[in-house]
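Thread: quick sanity check before group meeting

JM: Hey all, I'm pulling together slides for Thursday and realized we never actually wrote out the predicted structure for the chain we discussed last week. Dropping the sequence here so it's in one place. If anyone has concerns about the input, flag it before I start.
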Amino acid sequence: MGYRRIIVQHYGILAIGFLAVFSGNLGQTFLVGFFQPAISESFSLSSGQFGIAYSLVTLISGCLIFFIGPKLDWWPARRFATFVVCGMALGILLLTLSPWATLALMGFGLIRFCGQGMFVHLGTTTAARRIVQARGSALALVTLAIPLGEAILPSGIASALHVWSWREIWWGALAVLMLVWIPALLLYPNWPPPSQTRTTHKHDAEQKKTATPTPRPLREARFWRLSLMMLSVAIVNTGIFVFQADMVDEFNATPSTFAIGFALAAAGRVAGSLVAGRMVDRLGPALMGRLYLLPLLAGLVLAVILQNAWGILAYMLLSGIVTGMQEPTVTSLLIQFWGSEHLGRLRSIFVAGMVFASGLAPATFGLLLDAGITFTAILMLMIAMVSVGFLLAWGPLTRQVRAPSS
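JM (edit): ok, ran it. Output follows.
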């Protein structure tokens, strides 16, 4: 099924999923980083204090996602979306109106939790659960909202900061959020029902006999063998993006190299997402799982070999491709291994892991750099880590390729 046909047949749910994922850009690192100097100045925070607070709220966000994300299996999608929209609104209000740093940082944490976590979780889970026959392509389409946000929001925020204060920009974002989401919540008629229902005492026995057992992937060895493969992209990209200045300095490049690189990464992400969506539907997610980390490995190897601006650009392009491939591949893979009935639970585990990885990676890179390890050596460690993740996942993925789809 081609993308055009998918859009025509499922435009409503795709629009909701795309809107949710795009709204999640408000909590993504690439956007909130623009406000770091202004927020630090407003609350008298040093760069180090802001960095510690950022890591702390990110890790807390990961914990909350682990417990709240599965609610999407039990709640109607409309109710879950209302919860997330209200959480984002409260976070923005706390951040911008509170005179105290602690309360403002709680608001910042809510923005991260709802943006990086719950909005993306809502959009991808809803699309994957509703569009079964072309799941990979549907996920590719809704996750295009992230590179679109990366392409248009940073330049818009940078320009707006010359005209308005950082608080006024957040208030404007909140107004747009409400203008878009209130009609969607009130008027869109086809919000998906929950995949699980609470049982009554009268029917407990019969329903337990026919119900699909709740998957517990954290108790399965195959999940842990897949985990490093699924988290490698977040670990490597977050560490490199945070310490890009060190990479630029060691590779004798200029700061503009990463500016060009981010444009290449956005283009690669679009291409990777669209290609992976079709390949997942045609080849199956398990086979794609054995392939999708290869561009990341190639980018790291080229960066280590070239050690110049061209190496950085090659890495950024290839990392963009693999980042685009990740969502269609991993979400479809979770469904193939454990089924779609508990997808909210499964994706919450994955998203929580991604958030933890993005919170811990900067600390790891920073400690290695402080210990005198060169950036090239760190990249070689990342090659080793990705290779180990690739090899650990090979066995479960190979067995799943030969098994029927769930």
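AS: nice. The chain has a mean pLDDT of 84. Residues 101-130 form the longest helix (30 residues).
JM: adding both to the slides.
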